[in-house]
Structures are given as structure tokens and as C-alpha cells.
Design a protein that fits this description.
Layout: H1 4-11, H2 32-40, E1 43-44, H3 48-53, H4 61-64, H5 71-81, E2 96-97, H6 100-113, E3 118-125, E4 133-143, E5 147-151, E6 183-185, H7 186-194, E7 203-204, H8 214-228, E8 237-238, H9 251-265, H10 269-278, E9 287-292, E10 296-301
Parallel strand pairs: 1-2, 4-7
Antiparallel strand pairs: 3-4, 3-6, 4-5, 8-9, 9-10
Helix pairs in contact: 2-6, 7-8, 7-9, 8-9, 9-10
């Protein structure tokens, strides 16, 4: 069961998941599945548009959307393109072009707004690329019967019946209840690689050889710990231990990473909060580096986070 402190923590919006003054303009469903389908109808992933929908991304969209950090800004862009109620799925040309992180962020933001504790999880999916652990971010929400439950809004069937989907994700399970052995949170991935149970080179971004291996898992572990502390960054952000060269790490650094992996895998709330507050290499500073493929490498000043 959740403690009162943990429940309150994951119900309270973060800087990234805050939906703005007054929240969304429409009345929204509270059911996690209905909210996931709503998110699916507002977004498209830049990689899936051609193979899944045989569509092209509207001109200029990649320059404006993927580096959007805050859920309120995502909704602002969506409503600027089509002011219809958020419960109405958009045509592809009017959707926000976002990564898996954005699907997870908006889903968790709407869950928090409608009364369900939720958070983002950074890790690796085994259901996107055969025989590979693909870098992927999903939502984790609290179910009173099942406890913390993983959900992947991105891989749902598209809610717009008029869109003839060229292909679908081949998912052999309910995307609203992703099994733990089909999505490894970054802490589990780190421990599996460190103990030799999994090959680190099977973890990362399948189409980019440079983004595979233990350093990539290390980065996701740090970002997962940050997300569990309600600091939801972009996938290409970096700081401290998130991008430290493994060969330059000392025993104390590995001890911190191992402790973080254990706490994040077992969802030890108090331990996660303590580690994040205590170790500077884990904690996201106000100034971080964005290694964006869309906007180029640049520094970003994050807003101060609430306690």
C-alpha cells in the first residue's frame, strides 16, 4: 500500500506535469485506460508516422514539438491547432509530434489531475524491436488492486476509425498492464547488465550504434531516479552521473548507481528521496545540457522544483 506521503507526492503535479492554472479546459475521464486513449489521439511519434500511418510530418513540426518540456505547453500546441475538446482525437496533421517520453508525461499529468497517483518510468521495452531492449519511457500509475502498474499509451490502437493504419504495433498483452518482464525499468536493466545476466549491447536505441551499452543504461537510470522524484526531463538531457564516462567512475560512484538501481527497482520511496537529495551526481541541477537532435546541443535552465 502507498503511504500517505507517497500518495500525495505522486498526485501533486511537478513543474513538467503541471497543466497550468485551472487545468485542462474540458471535463476529463478519470479511468487510466480512457486517458491513455485520449493521449494517443492527441499525439504521434515522429518515427511511426510513415510506417504506421503512411503520412508525412507537417513542415516545421519537428522544430517546434519534440523539445517541448512541459505538459501545459503540449496542450497549448494541441489546442492551437484544433480547439476541439481534448476528448476528441485529432487528425494526424493537427497532433503534437512527441517521443515516448511525451506520451508518458501527458498521460501521467492527466492521471494526477484526475486523482490517480502516477509517474514516468525510464527503461527498456522488449516488445518494440525483436531481440533488443529498446530505450523507451512509459507511465506507471497506482491501481488499488494491482499496485503500481505500467501502461504504454503510445502502442495503443489509434482511436480515429477513419485513419487506415498501415501497420500496428504487435503487442501480445494489454498495453495498459505491461508485464514487468516486457519492460525493464532502468534499475533492473542496470543490475542485469552489471551482473552479466544481460548483454549491455542489447540495450539502447536500436538504430543508433553509438547509443547502446552500459553508458546508455547508466544515463537512463539517473533519469529514472529523477522522474521518480518528479523531475521529468527530456530523453536527451544530461548532467552528472547521467553522462559520466564509465571508465572515469570510481567505486563510490558505482555504489551510488547500484543503490539507486536497487531503490528504483523496488520502488523504495523514502530511499529514493534520500538518494536524490543526498548525491549531487544523481540530482538534476538547475542548469543541464540538452543533446537534442532537433534543436542542437544547448544549455537549459530548469525551473526550481517543489519539495
Amino acid at each position: 500500500m502507498l503511504t500517505d506521503d507517497e500518495r500525495a507526492f505522486y498526485l501533486r503535479p511537478s513543474r513538467a506535469s503541471d497543466l497550468g492554472a485551472g487545468g485542462p479546459p474540458d471535463e476529463l475521464p478519470a479511468d487510466p485506460g480512457e486517458l491513455a486513449l485520449l493521449v494517443r489521439g492527441l499525439m504521434m511519434h515522429p518515427v511511426e508516422t510513415e510506417w504506421r500511418f503512411a503520412e508525412e510530418i507537417p513542415a516545421g513540426r519537428l522544430a517546434s514539438d519534440p523539445d517541448t518540456r512541459y505538459a501545459a505547453d503540449i496542450l497549448r500546441l494541441v489546442l492551437a491547432r484544433d480547439p476541439a475538446p481534448l476528448t476528441r482525437p485529432r487528425r494526424l496533421a493537427d497532433r503534437f509530434v512527441g517521443t515516448c517520453r511525451d506520451f508518458a508525461l501527458l498521460h501521467s499529468a492527466l492521471l494526477r489531475h484526475t486523482g490517480t497517483p502516477a509517474r514516468i518510468r525510464c527503461g527498456y521495452a522488449t516488445y518494440l524491436v525483436r531481440d533488443f531492449h529498446e530505450d523507451h519511457w512509459v507511465t506507471e500509475y497506482w491501481d488499488e488492486t494491482r499496485g503500481w502498474t505500467l501502461a504504454d499509451a503510445q502502442v495503443l490502437g489509434d482511436p480515429v476509425a477513419a485513419l487506415a493504419e498501415k501497420e500496428r504495433y504487435e503487442i501480445p498483452f494489454d498495453p495498459l498492464r505491461v508485464p514487468r518482464d516486457r519492460f525493464l525499468v532502468a534499475g533492473d536493466a542496470w543490475r542485469a547488465c552489471r551482473t552479466g545476466r544481460r548483454d549491455p549491447l542489447t540495450f539502447g536505441v536500436s538504430v543508433l550504434q553509438a547509443l547502446r551499452g552500459l553508458p546508455e543504461v547508466q544515463g537512463n537510470l539517473v533519469k529514472d531516479v529523477a522522474a521518480l522524484n518528479r523531475v521529468e526531463v527530456l530523453p536527451w538531457d544530461g548532467w552528472g552521473l547521467a553522462e559520466a564516462v564509465p571508465e572515469l567512475l570510481g567505486g563510490a560512484d558505482y555504489a551510488v548507481l547500484d543503490a539507486a538501481a536497487e531503490a528504483s527497482s523496488s520502488a523504495g520511496f523514502d530511499r529514493l528521496r534520500e538518494l536524490y537529495r543526498t548525491y549531487e551526481g544523481l540530482r538534476a541541477p538547475r542548469m543541464i545540457v540538452s543533446h537534442s537532435a532537433y534543436a542542437g546541443e544547448h544549455q537549459v535552465l530548469l525551473p526550481a522544483e517543489a519539495a
